[in-house]
Hints:
The protein is an alpha/beta fold. The chain has helices spanning 12-23, 37-47, 63-72, 93-98, 111-122, 131-144, 159-169, 174-181, 185-198, 204-214, and strands at residues 3-8, 28-34, 51-55, 80-85, 103-106. Strands 2-1-3-4-5 form a 5-stranded parallel beta sheet, sandwiched between helices. Helix 4 links the parallel strand 4 and strand 5. It is globular.
Amino acid sequence: MAITVFIADDQAMVRQGFGALLAAQPDISVIGDAPNGLVAVAEVKRLRPDVVLMDVRMPEMNGLDAAREILSAAMDPPVRVLMLTTFDIDEYVYEALGIGASGFMLKDAPAEELIRAVRVVAAGEALLAPTVTRRLIADVTRRRVAPRARHKELETLTPREREVLELIAAGLSNTEIAERLFVAEQTVKTHVGKVLSKLSLRDRAQAVVLAYESGLVTPG
């Protein structure tokens, strides 16, 4: 089945450009768009897309508030939100991950990165690559989160699970982690599931936030 995508951006050219690019992919279907957050929330609840591309700055209701309302609705199957950002508003990235967004994309990223991002997020993984976005999250975390002692929950992780958490925070996908650790991808999925369960985390994005907040992973 095709991945269904909804695009929320106040610029018509962005919506049309992204829409045409994604619709041209055989495994992706664009089922709607919105010029502001209010319309986006209503339409996403009605259409239930797999992935929402959500711009941060929009009239009526900004992207962060719209994403928060969509994600708090806990729709089944879950709707994944991928935030669209630019460097001049990167201070919002950390907040977006904190409310449950599956990641973020720079609006000027190459076309192939946007297509990959939609596929990665639709598969249930957080988008924490390419390298430029990993640097961005590290910078945001360094500026907005004060260093503090490691969470006690981290002590419940096995050495392998801690290693997997570190690799998640570094932006690696399950496939990349499997290659790094020389194990099967299914084994990695099992480790990821245990990490999220033990740390009471909703998804990989929250795992990254915790890894930075706790000091397990340091920026840079």
